[in-house]
Amino acid sequence: MAYIRTYSSRVHIGNWTEDVALEEDTLKDFLDRRERGELTIQKTGLLKQNILKKVDLSVSTDGWLHFGDTVMLVNPGSERRHSASHQQKTPQDPAAIGINADVSGLSANSSIGAPCAVSGTRTFEPSARTAFVITSVDGSPVGETLKYNQRFALRTTNGFAGGLWLESDLKTPLKYAKMSRLQEVSLTDEPSFLSCWNVVYFDPQERLEYEGLPVPVNTKVLIAHCKTNHCLGVLGNYVLWTSFGKEYEVVAQTFLDSHKAECDVNHWLFVTANPGMESQAILDRPDPMANTTATENLENQFTESSDNRLADEKQDM
């Protein structure tokens, strides 16, 4: 039978000197780790303090997406949640891709290291965690518009976020998404063909017509992986416990509906800043027609149609 201490260390029974020495060593180790900032609670606080710093998103004056723009990748949500085998008739909240860093290897003077996981957060405040830079992989200059089906890379911001690259690869028996076991999406410190993506028009019936045209911001699109041809997706029925609470799992998997069109979990918005308000994402812009009644809407529509009719008459004269 193994030795079990039934009394406290102040009661001198058995190997009491060893018990006292063990408690003293444990306390000393705790104090040393606290001075070095190696406690888990200290690392978590350091992570939140640096990664949640506000980041200014780019402002698109012409409505197009450009190389060098700092944006957020936001899934607008869906009316039902999707999984690999079935569909649940429950809604899925909007989610933005964010860094899901492991605090075990974090230190006070270092940035986030690779490999690093990502997850779908329901916090839409632009920060170092949710901001990504549109980066060229074919030599296109900064400021040039990104076009449909043109290869590009998604990179986190410099500084504490580490300038990591969003990548994916075919799943293997040893590498797959933790919850859904689908194709994993993660961050790496070296760009490669695995970190190449392209934007696809979300409507398959008009996809060919839009190929080669500029990509608009704040508009629903698909983000496809160049190597595997799987679309980026967020799964609301697979919940991850992170340092920031419950979040969704992000994978590279194309989900098709009965019409062979990509489902809502594969739809994404390149969210930019609101030109009217500093440091505000355009996703948070209030609807200008939200406070008008139905009668006022009809009056506005009638006024617009009348003005258009008068303008046409003047041109004919």
Automatic annotation (TrEMBL):
GO terms for biological process: cilium assembly. It holds the Pfam family CFAP161. InterPro entries: CF161. GO terms for cellular component: motile cilium. Residues 290-305 have a biased composition (Polar residues). It comes from the Eukaryota. Residues 306-317 have a biased composition (Basic and acidic residues). Residues 78-97, 287-317 are annotated as: Disordered. PANTHER family: CILIA- AND FLAGELLA-ASSOCIATED PROTEIN 161. This is Cilia- and flagella-associated protein 161. The lineage of its organism: Eukaryota, Metazoa, Chordata, Craniata, Vertebrata.
